[in-house]
Amino acid sequence: MKKLMSTNKREIINGYLFVAPALIYMLALIGYPLIYNFDMSFKNLDIMTFKGNTAVYVGMENYKTLFSDPVFLQAMEQTFRFTIWCLIFQFSIGFMLALFFYKKFPLSGIIRGTIVVSYMMPMSVTGLTFKNMFATRINEGVINFLLSSIGLMNPNNPVGWFVGEKEALWAVIIANCWVGIPFNMLLLTSGLTVIPEDIYESATLDGASGIRRFLHITLPLLRPAILAVLMLGFIYTFKVFDLIFVMTKGGPLNATQVLSTYSYKLTFTEYKFSLGAGCAVILFLCLMVVGVFYLWLVRKEEAS
Fold it and tell me: pTM for this structure?
């Protein structure tokens, strides 16, 4: 009995030793900056108090200032709008591509691999590419040239993608969807491959049509994968920074300003460190709520 307890204790210690390097890494590179950012959001830290080391705690004053700032409220609204539109387009298109490539046909693997290239590219390169593609002049921007070629735009009145407020937001939405669609396609395709073919064959023998097989077999069995794709897509899209920063830097007139870019602007452009930290904290809390909600749904799914 004592020998068994000793063996179990040794296994527990070995498990902790294996986990320790990752835990130390997380605490050093994620935990400490996160706690420091929380602490900074409750101070009056700006370029003057930072230089003189005279910052004091001001409680919730920074958060009150943020929620009375119209630019911050606009950035928060646009963050949710940007995220929701991106999720709608990249999930629906990615789902259709997953269903399409699930069917085996010649060159399917090569075509699918080509589509995934857009997801593998660095986000800054993608942002710079789309910034050039959405250039206003016909002889500079590929998008306006194509729209003019097929008769959807007057060549003498090109679309000002980075001049108009609505157009700029849609430009960054399109660019982000170009990156997100392959991600959705890959995860959903993986989910489709684990569905047994025997279920479809049995349903076909019972006379179920393709639509009924999709509604009553594919969607229910694919629900865990769909849930994971939506939650991960929301998290990745909600905190996007580099794509928008490269393409628009939050302009024009804050039309594409989101929480991540506004936090950067407050911190590194206006040197309002505490306000920038508070904006980052709000971004973190929004994502934490989504993460907790996802874990609750997963546990509910496993329990049922």
Answer: 0.88
